[in-house]
Amino acid sequence: MSYTLPNRTSILSTPSLQAHLATLEVDGIAIVGTSNGHIYHFRVFIYNRTLSCSVSLDCNPTYEAQDPDKACVSIDYKNYVWTNSQNAPPGQIPPSTGAFDAKLKATSKVWKILNVLFNSLKRDQYRFNGGMGCRHWCAIILGDLEVYGYVAQGTTVQFEAWERYKSGELGLAAFIHPRVQGAFYE
């Protein structure tokens, strides 16, 4: 099967992704926050654990003058499952939240998931809230995978429990809870 992501300025894909798009089978999803030193930025990794690789979905504001909160989703092939957590020196927030990890109910071609997310649901058409809302975007992606039967029912509830736990562990200043929400547009 030949699949092409939609041709919209709100989607950036890499040549390395194109080489794997039609054939990569995935078996899990992870949501991971990485620190900029003050707060966490969250990304989705749709992965193949056996092959130790993933497709990352990284939603960021464009910061363009006319609409700085408009999102651009970078989609890239990675030769690792997800960004790993490291220990932080005393007094600093950890570089990563660690992963919220959920298995897919059955392996799937990654292009089928991307087709649902970007062709059908247009999840790249997102607007941040004052530059914030990446974790909410990731939660929506997870919810979509639950609705479409890729992950087990109740996975989003487990993610919400993980958020509460991590906010308590890492502190509200770095792991804001409840999460800041952006909104989708047509």
From TrEMBL:
Organism domain of life: Eukaryota
InterPro entries per UniProt: DUF7770 (IPR056672)
Domain DUF7770 as annotated: residue spans: 34-185
Pfam family for this entry, one: DUF7770
Official protein name in the record: DUF7770 domain-containing protein
